[in-house]
Amino acid sequence: MLGYALTAAGCSSNSGEKPPPTIVPAGPAASPPVSVAPAGVVRPLPGRPRAALFDAGTSSLVVFSPGADARSPATVTVFAAGGGAPKAIALPGPATALAGDDRGTAYLAARGGYFQVDVAAARATRVGVGGQDGTDFTAIARRADGRLVLGSADGAVYTLGSASTVAARVKIFSRVDELAAQGDTAVVLDRAQTSVTTIDTSGAHPQQALRAGEGATTLTADPAGRVLVADTRGEGLLVFSVDPLIMRQRYPIREAPYGLAGTRTLAWVSETAANMVVGYDLATGIPVEKVRYPTVRQPDSLAFDEASGTLYVVSGVGDGVQVVDRAAVPR
Prior knowledge:
Elements: H1 4-7, E1 41-43, E2 51-55, E3 60-65, E4 75-80, E5 87-90, E6 97-100, E7 105-110, E8 113-118, E9 123-128, E10 137-142, E11 148-152, E12 156-160, E13 166-171, E14 178-182, E15 185-190, E16 195-199, E17 206-211, E18 216-221, E19 227-231, E20 236-242, E21 245-252, E22 257-262, E23 267-271, E24 276-281, E25 288-294, E26 299-305, E27 310-315, E28 321-324
Antiparallel strand pairs: 1-28, 2-3, 3-4, 4-5, 6-7, 7-8, 8-9, 10-11, 11-12, 12-13, 14-15, 15-16, 16-17, 18-19, 19-20, 20-21, 22-23, 23-24, 24-25, 26-27, 27-28
């Protein structure tokens, strides 16, 4: 079951071993100019947003934008579902990745720890992780039991035992680019190995690892217990179960799939080479396209409000936040 890039590395967490074989990581396509008006309504948001999520606890879209360079403070922008002016929250420093608890708190990975953001109060605080002042955290996820999992630029996964202490560490990756949690199982995406790996509930042991296409870039967990992966270079949507880790579906999607949002009804995938977003029904075992919408330029980040059926598409080049009401209903 192990992909060849992880076979040697998966047996040990000894950082003195040779690094695993890698490839040049894939990324989103550079989108062309918009030729069709985006569906729905577009709300302004400048900068270069990197990630977004919908927080059901506050009925808000939360968008993370890094600073102008690696040393500049990041910003979190909160859009209330009912409209109104967005709130910009300046973080105390740079950040790299976003996660949430769906109950009013957002978490952002940072050097030496993470930022905890009270979405309703528009307040951010920094939490340092003990003994990790020099660690560049590049990914973050929150498990169902509330424990945070952080990934680092040097290829380690840290499972926290409290808000600021490390309970377990696994170091077998070239870099931890993204993390997702399905229940209490953490799932790691390593773009340079184009692999997905599950970490057991203790956080101390990798379970299974699989190759993820030809150039995987993003992953997300959905409410049906699946993990979705965009194989941007290989032009496909990959669907995994996690216990055990098995690729259940692989479906061709052209035009550089990248942004993902997993929902109860559809899996949403953006096509960055075409400025499109598509909703797929995964229930039959073969993804079936149900709806398709033109988007803002560079549709890198997606989020979905289950209560209202609203899809959010965030431009990665400052062309705004697209809001599509009742998105799962064919037009």
